[in-house]
Amino acid sequence: MKFRLGKLPSAKPLALAFEAETAAAGFLPLSISLTHARVAGSLPIAHKDPFDRLLIAQALVEGITLVSNETVFDGAGISRLW
Fold this sequence. Notes:
With 82 residues, the protein is mainly alpha-helical. It has two domains: 1-27, no CATH class; 31-81, no CATH class.
């Protein structure tokens, strides 16, 4: 979205070949599960953005680090990088 809005023009190669670029970097997709959805809906935090809540839930359920510059995530009990 940032590329489409013109905010990250240098991301063009990634935006145009996202699947290939992320696979080449060794990233694996993480599907949204029913557990992720349940945890996202029951998080005891004031953050209202449903996508952010889902990212937090995935990090909690999977025990993984969330890569984000959003400091609002810090109070959610997850590990955040960046």
